[in-house]
Amino acid sequence: MPLERFMVLANAHYYATRDPLGVAGDFTTAPEVSQMFGELVGLALADLWHRAGRPAAAYVELGPGRGTLAVDALRAMRKAGLAPRVHLVETSPVLRARQRAVLPDATWHDAVGTLPDDMALLVVANEFFDALPVRQWQRTADGWAERLVTHRPDGFTPVAAGVDQALTMLPALHQAPIGSIVEDRPAATALARALGERLAEGGGALLAIDYGHAGGLVGDTLQAVRCHAFADPLAAPGAQDLTAHVDFGALAAAFAAGGARVTGPVEQGQWLVTLGLAQRAAALARAAPDQAEAVAVAYRRLVDPAEMGRLFKVLAAAAPGWPSPAGFG
Ligand code: SAH
After folding, report:
1. Over residues 231-250, mean pLDDT
2. Is the beta carbon of 312 within 6 A of some atom in ligand 1?
3. Of the CATH numbers 1.10.10.10, 3.40.50.12710, 1.20.1540.10, 3.10.310.50, which one belongs to the domain with range 3-134+185-218+244-318?
4. Which residues contact 54 (CB under 8 A, 6 or more apart)?
5. Closest C-alpha residue for ligand 1 atom 2
């Protein structure tokens, strides 16, 4: 089967059968590192909403995990005078139950098509796009071939399909040596385009925060994480988290093709510091001196270039009539 299909099936089973987050799980995300992350996301959206003239608006999150980001963002939004209805796009029943425990009044959706269409949407997607499936293409002596996955007695292994002549036409790929791998992400591109259209028509803004690159990368970025360590991506399908680096250039182009105005990407560390992370950390440390060291550790984890600060990036998309989002320099 295409690698893309393998990733769909493996992740659908993986997320449907467990809460993967936290120390006892497989990985930890920024909102699980510190409340400061969700608070600044909420304040960035509330600020934009104020400057857009305070229209009727809903808070939307794609893949909200445990609901931690939403809880922190909504608390900060309320202090800024914004109390939106909450709409969560989540496919996992296990994680929906976790979200319901902390956000009992939310409305859940399987996909973005059923989101409200009579108000502006304030959308957040943190570590969501990285879990959507990628296609991979490998250069052979004859041209570019899609990577398939087949099952052999010793496990799953990649094999090449027929050569796709159309790909050899991409100028950026002319210099790639034989054996090179490139990726694209049709599901993410289609979703971003649809969301771009939705923002352009009904108003609103979106923040996509994820690990990834600005585009044009040649290489295999598929990775599996289990118990906070990297694993073989083709081993144990459905029992480990499969992700690949997000191509922010492709994502930005898709939002723009839908009609939204795109800002960024900028590095997560720079974005958080511009929005006031240091001030928030100082306030938390003052309010609870026994937590000062933990706050300092969380701060470094979120902004240090060797931790999440540089690899993670923030991209904004907004309705064309909306003001520019803060935090992008
Ligand atoms: N945003 C959270 C969780 C990230 S893990 C955080 O930062 O902590 C990825 C999330 O996306 C999980 O909630 C998972 O169930 C959800 N998810 C994965 N694929 C999805 C899909 N195709 N549609 C909707 N949700 C999906």
Report:
1. 96
2. no
3. 3.40.50.12710
4. 81, 82
5. 65
